[in-house]
Every structure is written in C-alpha cells, then in structure tokens.
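Blinded run. Sample ID left blank on purpose so nobody reads anything into the name before looking at the predicted structure. Input follows.
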Amino acid sequence: MKFPQIYALKDIAAIIGCEYVGDSNFPVHGMNEIHVVEPGDIVFVDHPKYYDKALQSAATIVLINKQVDCPEGKALILSDDPFRDFNELTRHFRPFQSANLSVSQSAQIGEGTAIQPNTFVGNNVVIGKNCLIHSNVAIYDNTVIGDNVMIHAGTVIGGDAFYYKKRPEGFDQLLSGGRVVIEDNVGIGAACTIDKGVTGDTTIGAGTKIDNQVHIGHDTVIGKKCLIASQTGIAGCVIVEDEVTMWGQVGVTSAITIGAKAVILAQSGVSKSLEGGKVYFGSPAEESREKLKQMAHVKRIPELLEKLK
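Blinded prediction complete.
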C-alpha cells in the first residue's frame, strides 16, 4: 500500500508514538507485507525467527520490537507491539469509510456496464466497460474491475484477510488495507468470496473463469485464462500461474506457487508448490499417474495378506 505522498520517518513514528533509528527525514513511501515489499516500504516483524528476513528484505523501514543494528541504507521504528502499530498505520492511511448509498458517488462505472438491483458498490471502486454485475453482489472499497467482467449473485469482492495474531484475550485481526484487482474478461460465479490484500492486491488475471462457491484468499495472484471449479478454496499469498485448471473441492495451502498449465483433479489437497504442465491428484497432491498406482496397490493389500496366511 503506497501512501498518498512521501512522508518523513519522524512523521510516521509520531503517528504511532514510537522512537526511530535513522535520519529523521528518511523517506517513507508506503507499507507492505514482507513478500511484496519494495524500497521505501515499511515492513513489520515481531518474532525473532523473522528478524533477519525482515532486516534483509527489500523494505527500507523495519517496524521491530527489538533494538538491533540498523542495516546500512535503512531505518528502524522501535515498537513494543509492531502488529498493533502496523494496524494503527493502516487505520490512519486507509480508514474505514461508511456508505449511505448502494453505489458510491466516488465509484467509476464504465459505459455499457449493468448493475442489477441490491448490489453494493463501495467507495473508490472502478468498474470497466460492458460488465454485468448481478444482484446481491458486494464490491468493497477500492476494488478495480476491468472490461467485460461478469459477476454472479451473492459474490463478495474485497472482504478482509483471514489473518490473526493469537493473544491471551483472543485473536487480534491484522487489518486489510489492500485491494482486489480483476482484469478483463473474467467470469465469477455465484456466492464466491475474494479477499483483498493485507497491503497489496489480490489479483484475478484476464480471461480466468471461476465457478460458484469458490474462495480466494488475501494477496493471492491468479494468472490469465485459469479455470477454477466449484468449492475450491485457495489460501492467502498463493501464486497460480497462467492456464491452470483446478477441479471441484481442491484445497490449496498458503504461500505456494502452482506452475502454468498444471491440472489439479477434484478433491485434491495442495500442500506444496507444484510444477507446471502436469496433472495432479490426491492429498497431498502428487502426479496423478503415480497417485493412482499407489491407490491400486493399496487395494491389493487384503489379497497379499491373504496369500501370506
């Protein structure tokens, strides 16, 4: 998430009441999660396991809960609770804006686009030309939709990320200040849920078709011309490359990559990255021919045990 202007380090630290290490005028461009940070971004870290990763990342400002040596060319913001203060920055730069209209006055709707009754279009939403948005769709703030997109009834675009920190009193949510970006010629079925990025974009590539009752998690990037069948669930921070096919009830764990033109057969569980151009099946998913051979061997176990008697 980029800020509306470049801020000085001292001004960002003042917003959250923290001390800092570095030039008081060190430039701060925005804030992001570690997998999408760029120079000028703030990244937060609150666990020793990830200190080095955050300090060595592309981010040039690290919001951290320990006094450490500041890497050259970077700055630190010292916080007793980086998770809390990252949320505070999200509230400051991307505050919740309530709505009193079904279609926000700040929304931009392209020529030839039809929006059916009872649909909600939030603040700063952009919808391209010749789209068809069916009834009871909810399109949350800052969503960007391209041309010739169809979205069926009951779908929710831009819900919060499922991202929590466990505390003694319960679960503390990491606020979502990102967006959903849907490119041209995408089709989305009924009752789908596509979560916005925490700080970046959840992206659906051009020409992709999504069946009913599919969930796509925060910051996931779906490539171009993919097919995703009903009841598939894709966790956050997944990269699905172009022309991937996922059949019904596939489950995909977070932060993995599925290579281009892979095919994942129904009811498979994907727990690690998969190469492109192959067919997969099972839980955990493996190349389908090998998995089917294993299943055939398992069926022979009673016969083999009988022979051993």
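Unblinding after everyone has recorded impressions. The first strand starts at residue 2 and ends at 8.
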